[in-house]
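Reopening this ticket.

The earlier resolution said the output was attached, but the attachment link was broken on my side. Pasting everything inline this time so it's all in one place.
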Amino acid sequence: MSRSLRTSVAMLSVFVMAAGCTVSHAPSESRSNAALTPQTAFTKDLVNLPKPKGKITAAVYGFRDQSGQYKSAPDSSFSTAVTQGGSALLIKALRDSGWFIPVERENLQNLLTERKIVRALEVTPAKDAAPVFVPQLVAASIIIEGGVISFESNVRTGGAGARFLGVGLSTQYRVDQVTISLRTVDIRSGQILQSVSTTKTIYSYEINPSVFKFVNFKGLLEMEAGLTRNEPAQMCVREAIEAGVAHLIVQGIADGSWHLANANEIKLPIVQKYLKENIDQPIKLSAQTTNNSMR
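Inline output:
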């Protein structure tokens, strides 16, 4: 084996090992079974929040995309940059927290139609059929409004690269940003009880190792590889919503809109963490009573 060929084989081995190191996980299989959506850091916070004195019935009429942003070309000029299923993510976050009882409002007409059908069956029941009882709908105590208010692409971009003796490596990254807003409304007075805005960055990066080398007088070795990782935008929206729900709960505890089952649990680190992030809220509270408390 000639010296130049041995050098080329050695360089190729180093390149393959370097390219393998850049892959943080095994390549996706061509077919995989469906699985539950992975949790975020704030999902754990919602589950671990202390229990309420009484759950609050909450209505969500919609969580709209108010950013007006579409995906940049050449992806699509008609596809929005963020998910349009924010209402489903918000309702799930409310239910997972254990503080709220979400009631159906977004597709209320479908619910009313089914109830009409049941009542029609009650008028002319079948022979020997048991009577059908339809309870009244549950009224909400608060309405939770909000939406995706901003999506900014290419907030920060950059990259680096180097090449030596025909062997090189380059990287590029991009940071996008999504912002959501949530507020709770008292249905009796229309008063805004709490309002919060949360922001989540969306990180994407690309790694490209390459080799461009003459192995002999007429032989040229050229090799490239690549790895791209894009943080899912819908997961970032979900994380921002869950963070907003956690902040709403703690803000409500602080101003007395609702109460903890055990008042002493306000000293727990998970509650104090959110209190410290709200600069308008005191870190230590001596009482949770108020004349306008809902729970």
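Reporter confirms the inline version is readable. The domain at 45-126+133-277 is CATH 3.40.50.10610 (Rossmann fold). Residues 257 and 293 are 4 Å apart (CA to CA).
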